[in-house]
Amino acid sequence: MLPLRTPRLMALFGRKKLTVGLDVGSGLVKAVVIDHSGSMPEVVKVAITPLNDTAIVEGEVMDQGIVAEAIRQTLAATGAKTKHVVAAVGGRDVIVKKIQMERVKEQQARERMRWEAEQHVPFDMDSVELDFQVLDPDGDGLDMNVLLVAAKQELVEAKQALLIEAGTSPTIIDVDAFALHNGFEANYPDAKYGNIALLNIGNEATNLNILHDGVPILTRDLAVGTRRMREDLQREHGLGAEEAEDFLRGYDRHPMIEGVVALRGEEIAIGMERAVTFLASSQRNFGAIRAVYACGGGSRVPGLMPWLSGRLRIPVQPANALARIAVRDGALEFLATDEVAPLLMLPVGLALRAAA
Fold it and tell me: What is the residue range of 70's domain?
């Protein structure tokens, strides 16, 4: 967990008994309530509300009223009494990048960071929420490694406005990539060594996080998700939307989806390869990715992970957001654990974040 300090972006507050992690995706609104009062965090409630395909398109809220109502329904279904939630921003308007700069003390680094960011962030610095974390504070070299984070203010403000309209208060606005990392680290502590890729395959986009020794060093959004797969099936085989969705959510690798898996899997593979090539060219001694973990609804598409593993020639395995976190009886109610666990890495990571 990275102790980033900006009050509105990635701020960490004191321990609360209950925290609510809220993930507003383009297909589903998901909330996870975690109780921190015991010796270990415990999931006490999970609630999921579907959104229609036109409410959020390419990450942009097209109908704020519909999305706000879905948030209200989701939070009401959790039964949590608090109106304070932990949410996140992500997408093209968020930059997470590992940089090097002259080794200075923290206060000097803070004074110089805006100038440093101008060299790496393609945004107007006057319209950006900015923060950083020194990754090797005890190093003795002339340079130090810094994780730089920048998000457009309008993105943060839009998320705050949406949550306020839904009748809730955003206690923390985090970054998707860090929340995913936080949930992943809690469930897979042994995977924090070497270079690991974490794929969150969502409805409209795939979030790629590359971690080095447990630290996020590169994040990218790939414009491929289950919506495109569903549309491919509808177009190529004349299926209805629900029928196509059933194939993607099924347990059997139906021959009808083989072409879709190969087509969209190739896009994900190429995106990963380009990210690795960039890191290899910009960082000394960057080694190969040793394993890939996949979560999100797309990770459940039959045959996709084996296809990616064969294409990339490295292990690709599912990432379960509830693998090592206690789940109270009744927390999932009528939800099937094996179906929802891949969907919860982001909201679990958000709810865990407030426990620092």
Answer: 1-91+151-188+320-356
